[in-house]
Amino acid sequence: MLDLGDVPFFAELSAASLARLSREMPRREYAQGDIIVRIGEVGRSFQAVARGVVRVLPDPGIDGDWRGVMLGPGQVFGEMSLFSGMPVSATLVAARDTVTWSLDGPAFLALLEREPALHRSLTRLLIERLRNRTRHEARRPGLAVIVGVPHGPVVRHFVDTVMRAVRCYAPGSELGVLALEASDARSAQARLRARIDHWRQHAAGGQYLVFHATPGELPLLTPLLQGADVVVSLVTPELDEDGLHRIASSAGLADVTRVYLDARPAGDPGRWSFCVAHDELHRAREARGRWDRTQYPNLDSIARYMTFKEVGIALSSGAARGFAHVGVLQVLEERGVPLDYLCGTSMGGITALTVARCGDTREAERFLQSFLGGNRKIRDTRLLPGISLFGGHKIARAASETFGSCTFADLSRPVAVVAADIAGGERAVLDRGRVAPAVLATSAIPGFFPPIKHDGRVLVDGGIVSRVPVDVLNRRRCGLKIAVNVLPSARQVPDGDPERLERLWEQMNRPLGLKRVFGNAWELLGSWGSTLEAMRADVVVAPDTPPRAGFDFDRFGELVERGRIATRERADGIVDALRAMLEG
Predict the structure, then answer these.
(1) Catalytic residue among 45, 81, 316, 346
(2) For the chain, is the Cβ count within 10 Å smaller at the N or the C terminus?
(3) What is the rounded distance in angstroms from the CA atom of residue 398 to the CA atom of residue 419?
């Protein structure tokens, strides 16, 4: 049986600290087959294996093909749940008779406060957990194709500059050469296939072989493209809309994105596209030394998209409690975490769209407070409730004044919001066309606000079908997925508080008490299952939002601050996870 000093997690501790910890840390014994902790339970302890083996059993519905791991002497578990405050993400079973050292949650957190040296061990452990649990296609060698008109200096400069950034994030990536001779096209294609097959077999995971092709050459590569590959279409005056559609249709299984050199057209009804101004391209081309992502943000975003290094953030539903999302995004922005791709449901969707419209989280806070930060700005009760309790005219006016004729393609970053189609009986993910209807659709709480008829659908609040839409992040090439869940609990009355129970009952039986019934029921619907959805992310931020605030829009400032507080507590770990992704 290992001594406590032989556990790598405690390697930074002094002999005196180890001796004290040995006295404080009791042992626990488990017989073979005992369940140590079940998935979904609240994490209560940090444990280090002294003897035996612990099997980690994942949830197939969340973890896919990941089959779990075996933990032996010296390895630890339980820290993720204690550190994040989220439920345990896997079931742990004693595979043999096992002995562990154990600390309950408060004692573990107190130990971290007392022994700052353990923060280095915890950071390394969390990064390792993230790396082991990141299971996207970027772990395989990939293929990237930059499609543009031939021989133009601007296109050539773009390819060369983006390759600098790609090599920063995926060292060992190479720029391939398309040598397709018209006189012997068949053998040229065979050589190209052999070159790409050799790359996929022998390159390291995450490295990319990048080709610059013309629109006419792309179909030659199409049969060789796989799901983790990417096609980047450079939009220049020589390419008309028909040419761009032909490029998209020739991409096969690969992801496709557009890059406008200089300016995007206003009011584009399609999906969001990258844009690089000529002066940024010129500055990056002239620069020397290591790639600096802060100096060339648009080029950097393109390279990180190509190499699966984007940060994707899923924002939960929660009505007024969703104002906490603003505080979360502000702290992330302050700490240098790029908000590459935002998706959300209900108020999470409204927040995502407003941040992308304003381009700045502080400006987004002012917009949201101006239009939504107050009950009188939201509620317009009908004299005779029909399709909904509120008329929805105020929030419709706010959406129109904020977004006007703005489309998703006009936003500063890509966004998708979730709504529920009650006519088609399915989930709707909105990421193109005008923004204002999407704002109303994602937040049309059934019973409170009227449904939205849009694009052949009848849409209501997306919280019905997806409370924390982490799976929507799979639409992008996100290497770090962050979930923000403002619905960890819908408890209205603490256990053993009959006075609060009676007060709630009286409120529901007053005139128009159905508002309280609707509100409580909707919050329960939102919180039920939101925790499990959020656990699909790499990192979860769960602001402590009071249940009664769900429909109290007057508490705007308080809820924003609660988002800031929760994120500051997690910020160091998130920054470490970002660094691990960018350098991995």
Answers:
(1) 346
(2) N
(3) 19
Q: What angle do CA 357, 359, 364 make, to 5 degrees?
A: 70
What separation in angstroms does the CA of 580 have from each of 75, 338, 473, 480, 574? 21, 14, 19, 10, 10
Closest CA to 66 of 78, 57, 79: 57
Cα separations in angstroms, 370 against 301, 346, 395: 31, 18, 12
Return d(Cα 483, Cα 466) in angstroms, integer.
13
CB atoms within 10 A of CB 31: 10
Q: Parallel, antiparallel, or unpaired for β 310-315 and 174-175?
A: unpaired
Is residue 346 part of the annotated active site? The answer reads yes
What does each C-alpha distance from 87 to 482, 540, 546 come to in angstroms? 16, 11, 19
Low-confidence ranges of the chain (pLDDT < 70): 58-68, 84, 127-139, 150-151, 179-183, 185, 378-389, 391, 488-496, 512, 514-516, 518-529, 532, 547-548, 550, 584
Q: Which two tokens stand for residue 106?
A: 């408060």
- Asked if residues 325 and 315 have their Cβ atoms less than 8 Å apart, the reply is yes
Judge contact between 423 and 458, C-beta under 8 A: yes
With residues binned 3-state (H G I as helix, E B as strand, rest as coil), the percentages for the chain, rounded to 5, are 45, 20, 35
pLDDT digits (tens, 9 = 90+) for 380-412: 666 556 666 676 777 888 888 889 999 999 999
233 part of the active site: no
Model confidence, pTM = 0.74
Q: Using an 8 Å Cβ cutoff, are 518 and 526 in contact?
A: no
Are the beta carbons of 121 and 9 closer than 8 angstroms? yes
CA pair distance 67, 90, nearest whole angstrom? 11
| Burial classification of residue 155, based on how many CB atoms lie within 10 Å of its CB (0-12 exposed, 13-18 middle, 19 or more buried) | buried
Of the candidates 255, 300, 340, 461, the residue annotated as catalytic is 461
How far is 98 from 249, CA to CA, in rounded Å?
57
What HEC string does 504-522 produce? HHHHHCCCCCHHHHHHHHH
| CA torsion through residues 375, 378, 384, 389, sign | negative
Cα(368)–Cα(351) distance, integer angstroms: 8
Q: What is d(CA 176, CA 422) in angstroms, rounded to the nearest whole number?
A: 49
List pLDDT tens digits, range 506-552.
877 887 676 667 666 666 665 656 776 887 888 889 898 876 676 78
Is the separation of the CB atoms in 47 and 29 below 8 Å? no
Long-range own/partner contacts, residues 187-192 (CB < 8 A, 24 or more apart): 189/220, 192/220, 192/221, 192/224
178 vs 184: CA distance, rounded Å: 14
